[in-house]
Amino acid sequence: MNKLYLLLFSLIVCYLQGSGQIIKNDLAINKDSVYLNWYNKSPKDDSVYGAAVDKAYEQLLKNKESVTVIVAVIDGGIDINHEDLKENIWINNNEIPNNGIDDDSNGYIDDINGWNFIGNAQGENITYENLESTRIYRQLKDKYEDVDPKSVSEELETEYKLYLGAKNKYLKEKKQATKDKADIKMFRESYLAAKVKLEWYLDTNVITLSALKNIKSEDKFLMHRVNFLKFIFENDFEEELIAEMKKESEERLEYHLNMDFNPRTIIGDDPNDIEQTYGNNNVYGPESDHGTFVAGIISAKRNNDIGIDGIADNVKIMALKAVPNGDERDKDIAKAIRYAVDNGARVINMSFGKDFSPQKQLVDKAIKYAEEKNVLIVHAAGNDALNLDKTIQYPTNKLSNEIYANNWITVGASSDTIDLEFAAEFTNYGKTSVDIFAPGVNIKSLKPENKYDIADGTSFSSPVVSGVAALILSYFPELSAIDTKNIILNSVYDCSNVKVQLPDESFGKSKKTKFKKLSAKAGIVNAYNAILMANDIVK
User: Fold this and answer.
1) Same structural domain for residues 237 and 295?
2) What share of the chain is helix, strand, coil (3-state, %, to 5)?
3) 16 CB contacts (<8 Å, ≥6 apart)?
4) How far apart are CA 138 and CA 258, in angstroms?
5) What is the pLDDT along the chain (539 residues), one digit of tens a residue?
6) Pairwise CA distance, residues 413 & 426, whole Å
7) Exposed (0-12), middle (13-18) or buried (19+): which is 487, by Cβ within 10 Å?
8) Do residues 449 and 407 share a domain?
9) Domain boundary among 252, 274, 294
10) Does residue 7 form part of some domain?
């Protein structure tokens, strides 16, 4: 479930297990101004636990020369014409736009700003996809559904275990999605009933928190509704969340978990042929909200009095569309990584993940290829409050044959203040599997059509680190990908002994722990320290 909507589910869990204009928060803070560019601020100078990017520019990089660094964003699409991003979009100068010819002979026709690996040559694109568990279960169901486990040969044992894992995951997800849909319906009905009753009682269509607090009545039924609205209002509820949750729940059942839905026929590719070229040059396409948000954090134009300030000031974003609304396919990710490497990217941001990887060998080879070609990969840890030391998520830097990629950073999400919620409640973690944390709560970034939004997720912590990596390589281009990784990891702002809630989506049942138990480096990315260290190494 998207982390934007965790609040509503917490309200459902907490409240429904018990019993004209929407509600207006007359005491609300202006989140747009409070959270604007906080990820650029300094823990030491601003008492805001950002990445100290502004401090690095002001004290270390002023009047310094830099080179342009290409950062590939493998995601769901990017609005390359956004007012705060369009100047920092990669352009393939070896390709003549829209002439229908592969001018640079790289195998991709008219790839001016990147490539779309989930579309076809006729311009059709995949928007929705299954979860990987759905695809695996559908593919292997007939083969193994009625098979006696004892009769499975040693040769088929690995595939059979994959089938069982996917089946169990699919059935669990389907059951939960069905329950979620019912819970959302119940919440909506309770909310609307309370809203109508209180609008009538107060003789207004604008209900404020102060008005609710002033209501005193012996009518228990009325006060139940008052308390319900007070409760959700005090937890930053917005009415639009109900419609968004309803839509997401329906999409999950109609597309992600629908065994009869298979959009891949649009592509018409051979799923096992990694050398095959397919797709189109539409890097925007549907579902570009996520990728635009990610790209903005890395490279929104700095100091232009528009929107936000991205992290890196001399960077070009290569847009690679390979992530649908649903689970990405391994072959598409492998192809996108190879495209990024072959076309000059020095950093690849990957803010996606899933539970199964049936063609993991393809992704592993692409990651290894990136390592050989000196390209850094930065990956979001994920948003399921899992210990990745115990539960593997894909893609991963653990390659085949117990080999680990050295050009890989896994990033968890942190908040702006040192308190029990410093580690985001949703973030995945792991003492050995997660390298570092970075800002990922209440992040303001770009939305398509020249809009802006605030969101949470390790998806947005990853580009903070990608941006810092690009910043380092821009001012110290002689450094390698592994040098850059080591600088980032060894220059963290140390938070080892901060006491935090162990990430947990069960709302209130979490245990306390030390931050040092959540990642290998027990700190948050710090651009100021990283630039200092890079400068010393280069000298």
Assistant:
1) no
2) 40, 15, 45
3) 183, 186, 187, 190
4) 10
5) 444 345 555 555 444 444 323 333 443 446 777 899 999 999 999 999 999 999 999 999 999 999 999 999 999 999 999 999 999 999 999 999 999 999 999 999 999 999 999 999 999 999 999 999 999 999 999 999 999 999 999 999 999 999 999 999 999 999 999 999 999 999 999 999 999 999 999 999 889 889 999 999 999 999 999 998 998 888 778 888 889 889 999 999 999 999 999 999 999 999 889 999 999 999 997 789 999 999 999 999 999 999 999 999 999 999 999 999 999 999 999 999 999 999 999 999 999 999 999 999 999 999 999 999 999 999 999 999 999 999 999 999 999 778 999 999 999 999 999 999 999 999 999 999 999 999 999 999 999 999 999 999 999 999 999 999 999 999 999 999 999 999 999 999 999 999 999 998 665 566 999 999 999 999 999 999 999 999 999 98
6) 8
7) buried
8) yes
9) 252
10) no
Q: What is the CATH number of the domain that holds 492?
A: 3.40.50.200
End-to-end Cα, the chain, rounded Å: 47
Co-location of 231 and 305 in the same domain: no
Query: DSSP string covering 220-266, please?
Result: HHHHHHHHHHHHHHHTT--THHHHHHHHHHHHIIIIIT-TT--GGGG
Whether residues 388 and 511 share a domain: the answer is: yes
What is the residue range of 219's domain?
173-252
The DSSP H or E segment spanning 71 is strand 69-75
Q: Evaluate whether 421 touches 500 at the Cβ level (below 8 Å).
A: yes
Partner residues linked to 354 by β-bridges: 394
Q: Do residues 67 and 59 make contact, with C-beta atoms less than 8 angstroms apart?
A: no
**H-type helices in 283-325, by residue range?**
289-299
Let me know whether 409 and 487 are in one domain.
Answer: yes
- For β-strands 408-414 and 376-380, DSSP reports them as parallel
Q: Are 315 and 79 in contact (CB under 8 A)?
A: no
Measured torsion, CA atoms of residues 19, 20, 22, 25, in degrees rounded to the nearest 10? -120
Structure tokens at 517: 């138990």
Same domain, 58 and 184: no
Does residue 99 sit within a domain? no
Domain boundary residue, one of 201, 233, 252: 252
Q: For the chain, what's the residue count?
A: 539
Tell me if 353 sits within 8 A of 380, measured CB to CB. Answer: yes
Strands (E), 415-538: 436-439, 443-447, 451-455, 493-494, 499-501, 512-514, 523-524
- Distance between CA atoms of residues 381 and 359, nearest Å: 20
295 domain-assigned: yes
Domain count, the chain: 2
For residue 317, give the nearest of 41, 16, 88, 59 by alpha carbon: 88
Q: Give domain status of residue 159, yes or no.
A: no
Residue 486 to residue 529: CA distance in whole angstroms:
12
Rounded CA gap, 179 and 185, in Å? 10
| Same domain as 497, residue 430 | yes
223 and 295, same structural domain?
Answer: no
* Cα 453 from Cα 465, distance rounded (Å): 20
The 3-state DSSP class for residue 211 equals: helix
CA distances to 20, 25, 122, 233, 525 from 192, rounded to whole Å, are 11, 17, 45, 14, 44
CB atoms within 10 A of CB 123: 11
